[in-house]
C-alpha cells in the first residue's frame, strides 16, 4: 500500500504544471532526435544535460526521461517512412515497418509503432513499480555466464530469421560476428583485424554504419533498380476507415506485445544491454513463435509492434539498475547517471529510501509521458504521412544525405561514411543473391556483448565450457542455455522434418 | 601538501591566469563544443569526474561552449589515446587521465603512442585513492574482518578479483600485492568500476581494488566494506577504514592521478585557456565539497611541476610493469 501512496505522489508531482510542460516539451524533443538518423536518445540527453542544472533534480529527470522516451517512439518514424533507422533502437523496426509503408500501409505501421510503444512502456513501468527491489536483486545475480547464455539465445532465435534457408542465415550471422571483432580486443586491448593499418578500424565498426548502409543505401539502390526511378506511392487518405483498419490490424499483435513488453523489460534491467539488443531479440523471438513467421520481413504489424514494444519497455527497465545499483543499463542511462551525481544524488541501493520524491516522481512521470507520447504520435501521423507524397526523385537525395550524416555522426569520421557506402553496395548484392541481412545487423550489436561475457566466463571457469551448463552452480545460465539450444534446433531441423514427412506422404 | 604550499600554488596559478588574459590581445575561447575524452567506461571514477567537471562548467557558465564527455573505453585507454593522438593540433579536444595513460603506451607499443610527445599536459586536479573491498556477505570471504585476515585467506585460496581491464591500475596493484604478500588471484576484467562493483556485490568476484567513488553506493548501503586504504593516513570519508601505514605496510601506497591533457601541437594560448578553465573548476566550492566527501585528495599541479611528476610516474610505472611481467 505504501507503494501506491508513493506512486500517486509521483504522478501528482509530474502533473504540476511546470513538470508537465517540461514533460511534453521533452517528449517532442525526443520524437525529433529519435527520428533524425544519427541522432538518438544518447545525443539528445547528453546535449540537454546542462539545461537541467538550473531546475530542481526531479523536474530535470522528468524532462530527460521524457526525451529518452520520446526518442524511442521517434526512431520508428524514419524507420517506417524512409527505411533508415532513426536510432539504433529502431533498426528492427525497419524490418517490417518499411515493407508495410511500401505496400501502402504506412498508417498501420505508424499506429502499430505508437501503440506498441505505449503498451511496452506501460507494462514495463507497472513492472517497475511493483517489483523494483527484487528485480534489482535479479540484475545483480545476472553475471557473465548468464549474459552469455542470453546472447546465445538471441542468436538462436535469429537462425530462424532468414526463413528456411538456414545456411544463408548462419553465413549472415558469421559476417556480422566477424565485423564485430574488428577494433581493439575487449580483454587485452590489443588491436585486431586492422585492415591495411587504416586507423579508422581501431574504433571498430559502429553498428549504425552497417545498419544505415544496408537499409538506407542498399534499400535505395534496390528501389531504384526495381522501379527504374518511377516510384509510385499508393495514394494515402487519412480517414476514420483507415484509422479503424490500422487499429484492427493490432488485434493480431497481442503475442508480439507480450513478448516485447516482458522480454524488453528483462533485457533492459540487465546492465550493459539496453534497448537495441532488446528490440532485436524481441523481433527474433516473436517471429520464431509466430504462426505466420514466413510473412515476417514482408510487412506484418507484429514485426513492428515487437521491437517498438521492446525498446520502450527496455528503456524503462534500464532505469532500474541505474536507480537501484548506480549502474547504467544503457548508454543513455549512463549519461542520466552522470546527471544524477551532479544534481547531488548518490545512485545506489539507498536512493529509494533517501530520495523518494525523486525516484517516484520519475516513475510517476513515465506513466504520464507514455500517455502523452501516444497522443502526440497518433495526432502527428497525418503529418508524417506527408513524407510519402514527396516524389522519389526528391526523396532519394534527401535519404542519401540523411544516411551520410547518420553514418558520420556517431564517430565523426569520414572513414565510417565510406564504410557505410560499401555496406550499402554489399547489402544490395546480398539482397540480390537472396541472403538475409538482418542477422548480420543483430550479430554486430550482440557480438561484442557476447564476446566479453564469454571470455569473462571462461576466465572464471579456467577455460571450461561447463560453466554454462551446470544447473546446480549457475541455474539461470544453464536454463537459458538449454532453451537456446532448443530454439536453435527447431528451425534448423524444421525443414528437415517437413521434408521427411512429405516423403512419407508421397511414398 | 601543507596549507601554505596550497595557498602559494593558488596565488601562482591565479596570477598566471591573470597574466595570460592580459598579455594576449585576442584570448582563445572555444568556438564549438569541447570533446572531453574518457579513456574508461561509464560509471567509473574517471567518468564521474569528467561529468562533474562538465556540470560545474555548465552550471556556472565557466566556458563559452559546452563540454561533452565521450567514453572511449576500448583497450585499457588505447582507443582514447589513439583518438587524441590523431587530433594533434585540435583546440576542442581534452582527455582526462587514469594511470593507464602511463601504462598503455608501454604495454601496447603497436599503437605507436609516445606519452611525452603526443599530448599536452594541462593540470592535475585530484589524486584518487585505492581500497581493498570485499562484499559484506561474500561467500568466499565470510569471517574476514581485517586486512590481515584477508591476506591469510588469499594466500591459501585462489580468490577472484574483479578489475577494470587487462594491465589497468588495479591489475598492476594486484601485481604489487602479489610481490609484497605472496598471494595471487584470478583477475576478471569488466568494463568500468561500476560494473566491477556490481560483480563484487553480485557474488561473481571475491574482492576488488576500486576507487572510493566506484564503490560508494554499495559502501553506504552496507553491501560492501573496505579493509584498507592505501594511503599514509586515514581518510575522513572512510573514518573506520585503517590506512596501510598504520597496519604496518607502508609499501602499499598507490594513487590514481586525475589530470587533464590536450592533444599535442596546440598553441600556448589554448593551453593557457584550458589550464585556467580547469583552475576555476578546481576552486569551485561544489567541486571541492563533492570530491572531499568522496574520499579524494585535492592536489592541483600544473606547468613544470606537472611535467616532472608525469616523468617520475611514467618511470615508476615502467618499473611496476617490468616486475609484473
Describe this structure in words.
- The complex is a heterodimer of chains A (507) and B (325).
- Chain A has helices spanning 2-15, 17-35, 41-48, 57-81, 91-102, 106-141, 144-159, 166-180, 207-227, 240-249, 254-269, 275-289, 301-317, 319-324, 331-342, 351-354, 356-385, 392-408, 414-432, 438-460, 475-506, and strands at residues 183-184, 191-192.
- Chain A is mainly alpha-helical and 507 residues long.
- In chain A, strands 1-2 form a two-stranded antiparallel ribbon.
- In chain A, a hairpin with a 6-residue loop joins β1 and β2.
- The longest helix of chain A has 36 residues, at 106-141.
- In chain B, α2 (45-60) links the parallel β1 (34-38) and β2.
- The relative contact order of chain B is 0.18.
- Chain B folds into 2 domains: 3-128 and 254-324, D-Maltodextrin-Binding Protein, domain 2; 131-229, Periplasmic binding protein-like II (D-Maltodextrin-Binding Protein, domain 2, 3-Layer(aba) Sandwich).
- The longest helix of chain B is centred in the last third of the chain and has 22 residues, at 303-324.
- Chains A and B meet through β1, α15 and α20 of A and α2, β2, α3, β7 and α7 of B.
Amino acid at each position: 500500500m505504501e507503494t501506491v501512496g508513493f506512486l500517486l505522489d509521483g504522478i501528482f508531482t509530474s502533473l504540476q504544471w511546470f513538470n508537465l510542460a517540461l514533460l511534453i516539451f521533452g517528449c517532442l524533443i525526443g520524437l525529433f532526435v529519435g527520428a533524425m538518423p544519427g541522432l538518438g536518445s544518447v545525443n539528445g540527453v547528453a546535449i540537454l544535460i546542462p539545461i537541467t542544472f538550473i531546475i530542481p533534480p526531479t523536474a530535470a529527470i522528468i524532462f530527460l526521461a521524457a526525451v529518452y522516451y520520446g526518442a524511442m517512439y521517434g526512431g520508428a518514424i524514419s524507420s517506417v517512412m524512409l527505411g533508415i533507422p532513426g536510432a539504433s533502437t529502431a533498426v528492427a523496426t525497419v524490418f517490417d515497418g518499411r515493407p508495410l509503408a511500401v505496400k501502402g500501409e504506412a498508417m498501420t505501421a505508424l499506429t502499430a509503432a505508437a501503440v506498441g510503444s505505449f503498451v511496452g512502456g506501460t507494462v514495463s513501468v507497472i513492472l517497475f513499480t511493483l517489483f523494483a527491489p527484487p528485480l534489482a536483486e535479479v540484475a545483480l545475480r545476472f553475471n557473465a555466464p548468464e549474459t552469455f547464455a542470453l546472447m546465445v539465445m538471441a542468436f538462436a532465435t535469429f537462425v530462424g530469421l532468414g526463413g528456411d534457408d538456414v545456411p544463408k542465415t548462419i553465413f549472415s550471422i558469421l559476417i556480422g560476428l566477424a565485423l564485430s571483432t574488428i577494433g581493439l580486443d575487449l580483454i587485452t586491448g590489443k588491436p585486431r583485424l586492422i585492415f591495411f593499418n587504416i586507423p579508422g578500424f581501431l574504433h571498430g565498426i559502429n553498428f549504425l554504419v552497417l545498419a544505415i548502409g544496408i537499409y538506407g543505401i542498399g534499400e535505395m539502390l534496390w528501389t531504384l533498380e526495381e522501379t527504374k526511378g518511377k516510384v509510385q506511392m499508393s495514394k494515402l487518405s487519412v480517414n476514420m476507415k483507415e484509422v479503424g483498419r490500422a487499429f484492427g490490424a493490432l488485434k493480431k499483435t497481442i503475442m508480439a506485445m507480450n513478448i516485447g513488453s516482458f522480454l524488453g523489460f528483462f533485457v533492459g534491467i540487465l546492465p550493459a544491454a539496453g534497448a537495441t539488443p532488446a528490440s532485436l531479440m524481441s523481433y527474433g523471438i516473436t517471429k520464431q513463435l509466430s504462426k505466420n513467421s514466413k510473412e515476417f520481413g514482408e510487412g506484418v504489424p507484429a514485426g513492428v509492434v515487437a521491437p517498438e514494444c521492446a525498446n520502450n519497455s527496455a528503456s524503462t527497465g534500464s532505469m532500474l539498475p541505474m536507480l537501484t545499483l548506480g549502474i547504467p543499463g544503457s548508454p543513455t542511462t549512463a549519461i542520466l547517471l552522470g546527471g544524477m551525481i551532479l544534481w547531488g544524488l548518490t545512485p545506489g541501493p539507498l536512493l529509494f529510501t533517501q530520495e523518494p520524491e525523486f525516484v517516484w516522481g520519475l516513475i510517476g512521470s513515465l506513466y504520464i509521458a507514455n500517455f502523452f507520447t501516444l497522443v502526440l504520435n497518433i495526432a502527428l501521423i497525418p503529418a508524417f504521412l506527408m513524407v510519402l507524397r514527396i516524389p522519389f526523385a526528391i526523396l532519394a537525395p534527401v535519404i542519401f544525405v540523411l544516411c551520410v550524416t547518420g553514418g558520420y555522426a556517431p564517430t565523426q569520421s569520414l572513414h565510417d561514411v565510406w564504410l557505410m557506402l560499401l555496406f550499402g553496395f554489399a547489402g544490395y548484392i546480398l539482397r540480390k543473391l537472396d541472403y538475409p541481412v538482418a542477422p548480420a545487423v543483430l550479430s554486430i550489436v550482440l557480438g561484442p556483448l557476447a564476446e566479453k561475457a564469454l571470455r569473462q566466463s571462461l576466465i572464471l571457469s579456467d577455460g571450461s565450457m561447463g560453466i554454462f551448463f551446470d544447473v546446480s552452480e549457475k541455474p539461470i545460465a544453464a536454463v537459458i542455455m538449454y532453451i537456446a539450444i532448443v530454439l536453435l534446433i527447431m528451425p534448423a531441423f524444421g525443414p528437415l522434418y517437413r521434408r521427411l514427412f512429405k516423403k512419407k506422404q508421397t511414398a | 601538501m601543507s596549507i601554505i604550499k596550497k595557498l602559494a600554488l593558488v596565488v601562482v596559478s591565479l596570477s598566471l591566469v591573470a597574466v595570460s588574459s592580459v598579455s594576449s590581445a585576442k584570448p582563445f575561447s572555444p568556438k564549438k563544443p569541447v570533446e572531453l575524452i574518457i579513456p574508461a567506461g561509464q560509471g567509473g571514477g574517471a567518468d564521474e569526474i569528467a561529468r562533474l567537471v562538465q556540470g560545474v562548467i555548465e552550471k556556472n557558465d565557466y566556458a563559452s561552449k559546452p563540454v561533452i564527455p565521450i567514453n572511449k573505453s576500448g583497450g585499457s585507454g588505447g582507443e582514447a589515446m589513439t583518438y587524441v593522438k590523431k587530433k594533434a593540433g585540435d583546440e576542442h579536444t581534452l582527455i582526462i587521465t587514469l594511470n593507464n595513460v602511463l601504462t598503455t603506451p608501454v604495454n601496447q607499443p603497436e599503437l605507436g603512442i609516445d606519452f611525452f610527445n603526443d599530448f599536452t599536459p594541462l593540470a592535475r586536479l585530484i589524486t584518487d585513492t585505492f581500497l581493498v573491498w570485499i562484499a559484506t556477505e561474500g561467500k568466499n570471504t565470510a569471517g574476514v574482518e581485517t586486512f590481515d585476515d584477508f591476506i591469510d585467506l588469499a594466500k591459501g585460496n585462489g580468490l577472484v578479483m574483479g578489475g577494470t581491464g587487462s594491465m589497468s591500475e588495479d591489475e598492476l596493484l594486484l601485481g604489487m600485492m602479489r610481490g609484497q604478500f605472496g598471494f595471487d588471484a584470478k583477475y576478471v576484467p569488466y568494463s568500468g568500476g561500476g560494473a566491477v562493483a556490481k560483480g563484487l556485490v553480485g557474488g561473481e568476484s571475491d574482492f576488488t581494488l576500486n576507487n572510493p567513488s566506484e564503490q560508494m553506493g554499495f559502501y553506504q548501503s552496507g553491501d560492501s566494506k573496505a579493509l584498507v586504504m592505501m594511503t599514509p593516513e586515514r581518510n575522513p570519508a572512510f573514518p573506520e577504514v585503517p590506512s596501510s601505514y598504520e597496519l604496518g605496510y607502508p609499501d602499499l601506497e598507490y594513487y590514481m592521478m586525475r589530470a587533464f591533457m590536450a592533444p599535442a601541437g596546440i598553441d600556448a594560448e589554448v593551453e593557457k585557456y584550458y589550464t585556467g578553465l580547469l583552475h576555476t573548476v578546481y576552486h569551485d566550492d561544489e567541486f571541492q565539497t563533492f570530491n572531499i566527501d568522496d574520499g579524494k585528495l585535492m592536489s592541483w599541479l600544473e606547468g613544470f611541476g606537472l611535467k616532472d611528476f608525469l616523468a617520475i610516474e611514467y618511470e615508476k610505472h615502467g618499473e611496476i610493469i617490468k616486475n609484473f611481467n
